[in-house]
Design brief:
By secondary structure, this protein is an alpha/beta fold. It has helices at 35-45, 58-70, 81-91, 109-116, 134-140, 160-170, 221-232, 245-251, 264-270, 277-295, 327-339, 370-378, 390-408; strands spanning 74-78, 99-103, 120-124, 145-151, 174-177, 185-186, 189-190, 197-201, 214-218, 301-302, 310-311, 316-321, 345-346, 379-383.
Amino acid sequence: MTSFALASRDPVSTADQTDRRAPDVHAAEPIPEAAAAEIARLLGSGDLFRYTAPEGAPVARLEAEFADFLGTRHALAVSSCSAALFLALKALDLPRGARVLIPAFTFAAVPSAVLHADCVPVLVEVGTDFRIDLADFEARLDDGIAAVLISHMRGHTSDMDAIMALCDARGLPVIEDAAHSLGTLWNGRRIGTIGRIGCFSFQSYKMVNAGEGGMLVTDDPEIAARAVIMSGAYEHNWKKHAGLQNSYLHWQNRLPLYNMRMQNLSAAVIRPQIPLIEARVAAGRAGHDRVAARLNGSRWITVPKALPAEVRAPDSLQFNLVGFDRDDEVRAFIATAARRGVNVQVFGLSEDNARAFWNWQFLGPQPDLPKTRAMLMRACDIRLPARLTEGEQDFIAEAILDAAEAVRAG
C-alpha cells in the first residue's frame, strides 16, 4: 500500500522582499488530511477510473454529496467547469449556430465553451458594479437568442429575478456559470440552482481546491441523462449512474462522446472539502467585508455593495479606482501597491488578460462595448482567500489605501 503525508504549509510567506509581513494570497487552500487515506488506497489499487468499480466509486459518491449540498436532483462530475459549460450547451440540444447571450465581463473559457458547442456568443454590457447591465441585456434578448449563459463573474450576482423573468417569458433556458459562486445565496436559493443548469469549478483558486475539476447540476432528468452520456459513459457505463436508466438507454449511441469525465483521485481530494464549504464561505465573506469597509473609506476607491437579495461567498475582492483619469496613474498605483507587498490586477491594463473581451480575438470582429471597456480599465482585482487572518487582511487594505493616496494626493 502506498503511504504518504499531505504537506503542511505556513499560510503566510513573503510576497515582496520589501515587507516580510505580506501574505501569500496566491497559495491555494491546503488539502484536508482526511483525503490522505483514500488517496493512498486509490494509488495502491490503481483504481482511478470512475467506472472501474461496480458501484460506490469516489466520483459517484461525490456527485451524490454535492447534489445533496446544493439541493439538486442531479449532479455530474467532469474534468473542469469549462467542460460542464460545454456539456450544458450540448445537453440543451441547441442547433448549430445558435446565439447564446453571455456577459462581456467573464473569463475567456466561457465564450470558448460556446464556440466549442458550435454556438455563437453574443456579448452584453456589464456595469461598474461588475454585473450585467439589465437594459442592454433586455435590448439584446431578441428572437435570435436561443439560450442565456450567466457568469457570476468573481462572485458578483446579477439580478437573477429580473434575468429569469425576462428569459422565462421568452422560454429561454438559462445556464449559470457559478465557478466563482459556490456557496452564494440569492433570496435564500443557492446560486447555480436557479437556472436550468448550473456549472461549478474546483480549480485551485476556487472555494474547493482539486487543482482541476468541475460539476454540472440540474433538476431536469433529460438534460442530466444527455450530459452523462456525452461526458463519456460509453457502452453500458451509464448503468453506474443512479436512476434515469430508461433515458440513458434511449440516448445510448445517439449522442457523441466527449470524454470529459472526472477521475477518482480528484473526487477523493474534493469530498472532504464539501463539509468545509460553509465555514470557508463565512470566513471569506467576513474577510471581504472587513477589507471592503476599509477601502470604501477612501475617496479614491469604491467597492460595489452586495445586492439586497445576495449573500456572497467571495474569495477575492474587486474595486474601482475613482479620479484616476490617466492610465499612467493607474499603473503607478499598481506599482506602488506591489512595493508594499500587494499585487493588484487591473483587468484592462494587464497584458493579454483573459477577462478583457478585446483579447478574445478567436471570436472575430465584435461590436465595441464602451461601458464594459471603461469598467475594465479601472476595475481592480485582488485575491483574498478565506484563510487570511484579520492582521493579513488589514495589511492588504492599508497597502492599497496607502498606494492610492500616494499616487493621487502625492
